[in-house]
Amino acid sequence: MQVTVRGAIAAPFLTACLAVNTWAGPTFNVTVDTTFLIGTPAVLAFDFIDGGPPSNSVTLSTLGSDGTQGSQSTSGDVTGTGPWMLNDSSLFNELLVSFNPMGSLLSFSFSTTDNPPNVGSFPDAFSFFILNTDLSFLITTNEPTGSNALFEYNLGQGEGGLTVFAPDQQGVSILVTPTFTAAEPASLALLAIALTAALIGARRRSD
Fold it and tell me: Least C-beta-crowded within 10 Å: which of 34, 53, 56, 143?
């Protein structure tokens, strides 16, 4: 018996298969030892730079700290009050969160859509800084271009897109741990089997 998958059925079948085969980007758990900053006012800066098509977004969790979190301000396409979503509809997208004072420990996590850049584009980049209240650098690092980022994540490269930089100040350290959540490849095969069985059943009933 020959089974024909008609266009009206084949289109959603292919769409479903592609959806199941989409892999999520990594989630990064960040812990910063801020013992050096106990009692000091500071501003945490989270910057998301658009490198070109395709679009990406970053989801940033609420911030865990034994310090006192204050106000926030944003530039570009940033939504939420914790957790936050940073989108790349603007070239420069920034979240600033004040602490007065900082405590001994800071923690948060972030995940991204992780789409790689198109030909001719640069990777979208997400980075983190600790600033003074006048937005000068409170913590400097060995980031080679002098940006003083504590980390930078270039989207579209998975875990390999992450670079963590060493703070210059003693009593400050950062640990970034990636975890991955992805759709199981086997689920695509299971979906194909289920849809094929349904199509065969429908074909038999119509014969």
Answer: 53
Peptide bond into 12 cis (omega under 30): no
Distance in angstroms (rounded) separating the CA atoms of residues 160 and 151: 13
Please state, for a pLDDT cut of 70, what percent of the chain lies above it: 75
* Partner residues linked to 43 by β-bridges: 98, 131
Residue at 204 is within a domain: no
The total domain count for the chain is 1
What is the pLDDT, as a whole number, of residue 113? 96
Angle, CA 179 vertex, CA 177 and CA 182 arms, to 5°: 165
The answer to whether residues 149 and 141 touch, using CB atoms and an 8 Å cutoff, is yes
Predicted confidence (pLDDT) at residue 27 exceeds the cutoff of 90: yes
CA atoms within 13 A on the CB side of 124: 29
